[in-house]
Model the fold of this input.
Amino acid sequence: MQALVYLTGECNYGGRVTDAHDRRTLVSILSVIYQPNILHDSYSLSNSGAYLVPEDCEYEDYIEHIKRFPLIAMPEAFGLHQNADITKDNQEVNQLLTAILSTQVLLLAPLNPDSCSLPSSLLSSKCICTLGC
Done:
Protein backbone atom coordinates (compact mmCIF):
# COMPACT_ATOMS: atom_id res chain seq x y z
CA MET A 1 0.00 0.00 0.00
CA GLN A 2 2.91 2.36 0.65
CA ALA A 3 3.92 1.97 -2.99
CA LEU A 4 0.42 3.00 -4.15
CA VAL A 5 0.43 6.02 -1.85
CA TYR A 6 3.85 7.03 -3.19
CA LEU A 7 2.89 6.48 -6.84
CA THR A 8 -0.37 8.40 -6.54
CA GLY A 9 0.70 11.14 -4.13
CA GLU A 10 4.24 11.83 -5.21
CA CYS A 11 4.56 10.66 -8.80
CA ASN A 12 1.10 11.34 -10.24
CA TYR A 13 0.10 14.45 -8.28
CA GLY A 14 3.53 15.44 -6.97
CA GLY A 15 4.24 17.79 -9.85
CA ARG A 16 0.85 19.49 -9.55
CA VAL A 17 0.84 19.86 -5.78
CA THR A 18 3.64 22.34 -5.19
CA ASP A 19 2.98 23.38 -1.60
CA ALA A 20 4.66 21.07 0.94
CA HIS A 21 1.67 21.23 3.29
CA ASP A 22 -0.76 20.37 0.47
CA ARG A 23 1.41 17.43 -0.56
CA ARG A 24 1.53 16.23 3.03
CA THR A 25 -2.28 16.49 3.26
CA LEU A 26 -2.68 14.58 -0.01
CA VAL A 27 -0.41 11.77 1.15
CA SER A 28 -2.24 11.61 4.50
CA ILE A 29 -5.63 11.31 2.78
CA LEU A 30 -4.30 8.64 0.45
CA SER A 31 -2.91 6.72 3.43
CA VAL A 32 -6.41 6.60 4.90
CA ILE A 33 -8.01 5.48 1.63
CA TYR A 34 -5.38 2.94 0.55
CA GLN A 35 -5.97 0.21 3.13
CA PRO A 36 -5.74 -3.58 2.62
CA ASN A 37 -9.54 -3.78 3.05
CA ILE A 38 -10.01 -1.70 -0.10
CA LEU A 39 -9.42 -4.85 -2.12
CA HIS A 40 -12.65 -6.38 -0.79
CA ASP A 41 -15.82 -5.92 -2.83
CA SER A 42 -18.19 -3.20 -1.60
CA TYR A 43 -15.65 -1.75 0.84
CA SER A 44 -17.10 1.50 2.17
CA LEU A 45 -14.95 4.58 1.77
CA SER A 46 -17.35 6.63 3.90
CA ASN A 47 -19.34 6.21 7.10
CA SER A 48 -22.67 6.61 5.32
CA GLY A 49 -21.89 3.97 2.72
CA ALA A 50 -22.53 6.41 -0.13
CA TYR A 51 -19.03 5.82 -1.49
CA LEU A 52 -18.33 2.11 -2.03
CA VAL A 53 -15.52 0.38 -3.88
CA PRO A 54 -17.13 -1.34 -6.87
CA GLU A 55 -16.87 -5.03 -7.54
CA ASP A 56 -14.49 -6.19 -10.25
CA CYS A 57 -16.36 -5.46 -13.49
CA GLU A 58 -16.18 -4.03 -16.99
CA TYR A 59 -15.35 -0.42 -17.83
CA GLU A 60 -18.98 0.55 -18.48
CA ASP A 61 -19.99 -0.85 -15.09
CA TYR A 62 -17.38 1.35 -13.38
CA ILE A 63 -18.81 4.37 -15.17
CA GLU A 64 -22.33 3.46 -14.01
CA HIS A 65 -21.05 3.00 -10.46
CA ILE A 66 -19.51 6.49 -10.52
CA LYS A 67 -22.74 7.98 -11.89
CA ARG A 68 -24.57 6.69 -8.80
CA PHE A 69 -22.43 8.86 -6.52
CA PRO A 70 -24.24 11.87 -5.02
CA LEU A 71 -24.25 14.89 -7.36
CA ILE A 72 -23.20 17.17 -4.53
CA ALA A 73 -20.18 15.73 -2.80
CA MET A 74 -20.64 15.40 0.93
CA PRO A 75 -17.74 16.34 3.23
CA GLU A 76 -17.16 12.67 3.99
CA ALA A 77 -16.07 12.22 0.37
CA PHE A 78 -12.98 14.21 1.34
CA GLY A 79 -12.57 12.65 4.78
CA LEU A 80 -14.14 15.63 6.55
CA HIS A 81 -16.78 15.84 9.26
CA GLN A 82 -20.33 16.94 8.37
CA ASN A 83 -19.73 20.23 10.20
CA ALA A 84 -17.32 21.14 7.41
CA ASP A 85 -20.36 21.56 5.16
CA ILE A 86 -21.95 23.96 7.65
CA THR A 87 -18.74 25.97 7.84
CA LYS A 88 -18.49 26.10 4.04
CA ASP A 89 -22.11 27.24 3.74
CA ASN A 90 -21.59 29.96 6.36
CA GLN A 91 -18.53 31.24 4.53
CA GLU A 92 -20.38 31.29 1.20
CA VAL A 93 -23.29 33.23 2.71
CA ASN A 94 -20.90 35.71 4.34
CA GLN A 95 -19.11 36.24 1.03
CA LEU A 96 -22.41 36.75 -0.78
CA LEU A 97 -23.73 39.23 1.77
CA THR A 98 -20.41 41.10 1.85
CA ALA A 99 -20.49 41.38 -1.94
CA ILE A 100 -24.09 42.63 -1.89
CA LEU A 101 -23.36 45.18 0.81
CA SER A 102 -20.25 46.40 -0.98
CA THR A 103 -22.30 47.14 -4.10
CA GLN A 104 -24.97 48.93 -2.07
CA VAL A 105 -22.44 51.46 -0.83
CA LEU A 106 -21.44 52.24 -4.40
CA LEU A 107 -24.97 52.36 -5.81
CA LEU A 108 -26.72 54.59 -3.29
CA ALA A 109 -26.24 58.30 -2.85
CA PRO A 110 -28.38 61.20 -1.58
CA LEU A 111 -30.97 62.39 -4.03
CA ASN A 112 -30.05 65.52 -5.92
CA PRO A 113 -32.58 65.82 -8.77
CA ASP A 114 -30.97 68.95 -10.24
CA SER A 115 -27.73 67.20 -11.16
CA CYS A 116 -29.15 63.81 -12.18
CA SER A 117 -29.92 62.62 -15.69
CA LEU A 118 -31.98 59.58 -14.65
CA PRO A 119 -35.66 59.23 -15.64
CA SER A 120 -38.13 60.92 -13.29
CA SER A 121 -39.57 57.55 -12.26
CA LEU A 122 -36.32 56.83 -10.45
CA LEU A 123 -36.21 60.23 -8.76
CA SER A 124 -39.14 59.52 -6.46
CA SER A 125 -37.04 57.53 -4.00
CA LYS A 126 -34.80 59.04 -1.32
CA CYS A 127 -31.69 57.44 -2.84
CA ILE A 128 -30.83 56.80 -6.46
CA CYS A 129 -28.13 55.14 -8.45
CA THR A 130 -25.06 57.35 -8.80
CA LEU A 131 -23.85 55.56 -11.92
CA GLY A 132 -26.22 57.55 -14.15
CA CYS A 133 -25.60 60.92 -12.52
